[in-house]
Design brief:
The protein is of the alpha+beta class. The chain has 2 domains: 12-66, no CATH class; 73-114. The protein has helices at residues 68-93, 95-114; strands at 12-15, 30-31, 34-35, 39-42, 45-49, 54-56, 63-66. A hairpin with a 4-residue loop joins strand 5 and strand 6 (54-56). Helix 1 (68-93) crosses helix 2 (95-114). The radius of gyration is 23 Å and the shape is elongated. The N and C termini lie far apart (55 Å). Residues 18-31 have low confidence and may be disordered.
Length: 115
């Protein structure tokens, strides 16, 4: 029976239908080919490798996911990638925009050197 999980990560959480919300450890220490925090689904139940054995996540409802900050950071990164892709396309279409972008990056570089 799984009673608690702990780790050093602030970005991965696991919870069941109980009153506590344990945290799943990142794969830092290993035992054989399993890593602490590995999760598997066996016979209709989730299990977590605790570093020495598989522990069943009890309860009829369990959740493993990201913290709100981690989810926000990933969403921001996806949005920034899309914006960069769109800006790249515009720079190909409009050479003046491409030149302005390169000038901005040059000035930004020199300003960062002064700080």
């Amino acid at each position: 029976m799984l009673e608690s999980l702990s780790n050093n990560s602030k970005h991965i959480i696991a919870s069941g239908d109980g009153s506590s919300y344990p945290t799943v450890a990142p794969p830092v220490t290993s035992c054989n080919h399993f890593h602490q925090g590995d999760v598997r689904f066996v016979n209709g139940a989730y299990e977590v490798w605790n570093g020495s054995g598989w522990q069943r996540i009890i309860g009829h409802c369990g959740t493993i996911g990201l913290t709100a900050n981690a989810d926000l950071a990933i969403s921001w990164a996806i949005q920034k990638m899309q914006e960069e892709k769109e800006l790249d396309a515009l720079c190909k279409e409009f050479p003046a925009l491409d030149k302005a972008r390169r000038n901005f990056e040059t000035v930004k570089h020199f300003v960062s050197l002064d700080q």
